[in-house]
């Protein structure tokens, strides 16, 4: 699942109140890939930043 403010109530509240995030907003996020790929299989991960010029938060 991609990162989304709706993933966590604290994130959503900060987003809706246009608060600037700080280190207290950091959350542990775990993604299990072993059920999708075989052991030893080479995979490439691409991280993409989505920015919406009409939104600040």
Descriptors:
14% helix; little secondary structure; 57 residues
Structural account:
The structure is a single chain. The protein is mostly loops and 57 residues long. It has one domain. Helix content is 14%, strand content 0%. The protein is built from 1 helix and no strands. The chain has one helix spanning 9-16. The protein is elongated and about 45 Å long. The two termini are 20 Å apart.
Measured on Cα atoms, how large is the radius of gyration?
A: 15 Å
Distance between the termini: 20 Å
Low-confidence runs (pLDDT<50, min 5 residues)?
Answer: none
Summed up, the domain count is 1
H/E element sequence: H
Structure class: little secondary structure
User: What percent strand?
Assistant: under 5%
Instruction: Give the integer mean of the pLDDT values.
Output: 81
Q: Classify the helix fraction into a percent range.
A: 10-25%
Q: How many β-strands, per DSSP?
A: 0
> In this structure, how is the largest beta sheet organized?
none
Number of helices: 1
Overall geometry = elongated
Blueprint (SSEs and pairs):
Layout (H helix, E strand, L loop, with lengths): L8 H8 L41
Can you describe this structure in just a few lines?
Helices cover 14% and strands 0% of the residues.
């Amino acid at each position: 699942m991609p990162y989304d403010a709706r993933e966590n109530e604290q994130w959503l509240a900060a987003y809706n109140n246009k608060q600037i995030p700080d280190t207290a907003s950091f959350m542990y996020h775990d993604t299990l890939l072993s059920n999708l790929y075989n052991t030893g299989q080479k995979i490439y991960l691409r991280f993409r930043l989505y920015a919406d010029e009409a939104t600040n938060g």
